[in-house]
Structure formats: C-alpha cells, structure tokens
Amino acid sequence: MLTRIIKNWDWVECTQGSYLESDLLKRYGFKHGFFNKRFQYQNPEKLSKVLGENLSIHSCKQIHGNNVIEASVAKSCQTIEADGLLSDKPKQSLWIASADCIPILIADNKTRNVAACHAGWRGISKGILREVLSKLRIRGSQLNSIIIALGPAISGKNYQVDDSVANSIYQSVSNDNSISSNNSESIKRLIKLGILEHDKDPDRFLLDIRLAAFHQLIQSGLNGNQISICPICTFAEPNIFHSRRRDNLKKIQWSGIVSSDN
C-alpha cells in the first residue's frame, strides 16, 4: 500500500484494506471513499457497508457520455446508461467505476445533496461536469456551496492522445469560439494552461485530464478552494490501482459517496 502522505487526502483503514478520503468532503461530513484494486472482489453492496449502515445502492452502466440521472432511477445492478448520478433521497450511496478515467465525487454542503460521475476525455469533451452542476442547481444548489473531489486517475505524463482529442478538450474548457477550427492555436492554449504537453512522438500529446476537468469547473463558476485533486496516477501504481492503458484489461475500482440523512 502507498505509505506516503498525500496533502489534503487520507488513507483510511478498514478490515478489507485502505481506501482514500478527500479532506474537503470529510470536513463537511460527507461519507465517501475512493477504493482501489485491493477491493476488486467487493461490489458496491459490500463496499457501502464501509461507508454506513442501511444505505441504498445506486450505480449505472457507464458509456463515456454526459447523461446524469437521479439515483432512484438507477438501482443496483440495473443497466441504465449514464455516467453521472444525483441523489434525490437521504442515505443513498452513489457508485462510479473507473480505471484511468476520473472518479468524481460532488457534494453540496448546504442542501446536502451529492453526486458522482465518471469522466475521461470523452465525458469532459461532452460537458458531463457542467451537466452535473446544472442538475444540482435545479435541485436548489448554489455554486458557492458545492465541493468536488477528483480521485485517482491517469496522469498527464502517461496519457498520450492525438490532436483531435486535444481540440475536443479545448472546446470544452474554453469560452472562445473564435479558434474552434484552428487545432494549432487550441493546442498552444492548452499547453499554456498546463493541460497539454508535447509528447516525444511528434504526432501525439500528453493530456492531464484532471487539470482539464479542473479548468472546466472553473469556467463553470467554481473557485479552486472548492475543488480537491488527488495526485495519484493509476497508471504509475500497478500494485494499487487498475489501469486500462497499462494493462489493457477491463478491470475497475469503485468510488462512492453517501447523501446525508439530515
């Protein structure tokens, strides 16, 4: 298990092993966990018991899109296609599966609603984070009361993409439509933001998807103090996390958050 201290994140011990918590979500009393491959034989029904008792279980069939649904529609083991879940009752546990994509857990410290979503470059490009925020605001949230934790995901130095992916990401994090068809200019701007780097392969780039998600959230009206980013790279930690890019296997780890009962 990783033993180094991670600023603003904690390893929490339980009988099955250790999972990650975000200090930001914990500070406001939200039960949650970013689980790793040590829990790979534990499904959400079992993992939910780590987070609380008598919780309902909610998950969905993830398809790298931007559909966000209410948790009551997504009962455990159903096959409803979506990449985001939004609580609509107390004591719901919302579960998202990931490997290299970002597991994102979201909470409103005033309404006590929570959300969970899965975002890779496709989800970011399709605006899933904006969709989650929109659904939360419909349910009464104000942007200044929302807090977000971006969990372990592949890091920029290990995530090679082509220029079409880079351009799609640019369109999702920028309000400037004047260069929508100019790949070279959009790439320059992403490099300036730190979201993109040149790869040793001249036809490829290195993409930091968590930083792309962060910038999309900032463009949506949040500030940096409302967002916590876990620095762990799934690709670089083969003993702890599954990575599709590293192993080319369809294996996942779960992340979950619980809606408050008060």
The biggest beta sheet is recorded as: 6 strands, mixed
Topology as H/E string?
EEHEHEEEEEEHHEEHHEEHEHE
Number of strands: 15
Strand residues, percent: 25-35%
Task: Indicate the CATH architecture of the largest domain.
Answer: 4-Layer Sandwich
The CATH superfamily label of the largest domain reads CNF1/YfiH-like putative cysteine hydrolases
State the separation between the terminal residues, measured CA to CA: 35 Å
* Biggest β-sheet: strands ordered side by side in the sheet: 5-6-9-8-10-14
Class derived from helix and strand content: alpha+beta
Helix content: 25-40%
Q: What would the principal axes of the Cα set say about the shape?
A: globular
Number of domains: 2
Flag low-confidence runs: none
Radius of gyration: 18 Å
Mean pLDDT: 92
What's the total helix number?
Answer: 8
Class of the largest domain in CATH? Alpha Beta
CATH topology of the largest domain: CNF1/YfiH-like putative cysteine hydrolases
Tell me about this structure.
The protein is of the alpha+beta class. The protein folds into 2 domains: 9-154 and 220-258, CNF1/YfiH-like putative cysteine hydrolases; 160-207, no CATH class. 25% of the residues lie in helices and 25% in strands. It has 8 helices and 15 strands. The chain has helices at residues 23-27, 44-51, 121-125, 128-138, 163-173, 183-193, 209-219, 244-247; strands at 9-14, 17-22, 32-34, 56-58, 68-70, 84-86, 92-98, 102-108, 114-119, 146-150, 160-161, 196-198, 205-207, 227-229, 253-258. The strands form 4 sheets. A 6-stranded mixed beta sheet has the order 5-6-9-8-10-14. α5 packs across α6 (183-193). The protein is globular, with a radius of gyration of 18 Å. The model has no long low-confidence stretch (mean pLDDT 92).
